[in-house]
Amino acid sequence: MVALMEERDAVDRILDEWQSERPDLDMSPVAVVGRISRLSRLFDRALSANFAAHGIEDWMYDVLATLRRIGAPHELTPRELIRSTMVTTGAITNRIDRLEERGLVERSPSTTDRRSVVVRLTPAGRDLVDQVVTSHLEVEHRLLAVLSPRERELLAATLRTLAIDAGDLA
Questions:
Q1: Which of 20, 45, 47, 52 is deepest in the core (most CB within 10 A)?
Q2: How does DSSP classify residue 25?
Q3: Chain mean position to CA 77
Q4: Chain centre distance of CA 50
């Protein structure tokens, strides 16, 4: 995972500028956090282009994939979706409404709690997410192609450590 020394990225330029202006500060966190932030935006752009090719947005894929990967009957309560997608109650209601309008999910009364509903993936939603996940993974493989399998493992482990420390627990 050692970068070629002749190649420089935008963060190298930022670090050089800070070194010139404030050599008294330890800017080493920028080398990591800055790159994670920039990569997040670059990766989001590539993934969003794939979603757009399927006529959906990233949040749609997030909800549909969450329902698909949990297994049959592919349903969760709105509260469970909130935990998985990390959005507010109002946001999840809006998202469910929009997906329901497109026929990708449906609401039905909960069989275990009369005050609640479950959100279920429809056959159309399942077909769509099954199409998108294939191309989604192709994009992700392409984004990581520069790394060897061992480098991917090490990076994944390091990022997991950071995520857990930041409070992103299962």
A1: 47
A2: S
A3: 20
A4: 13
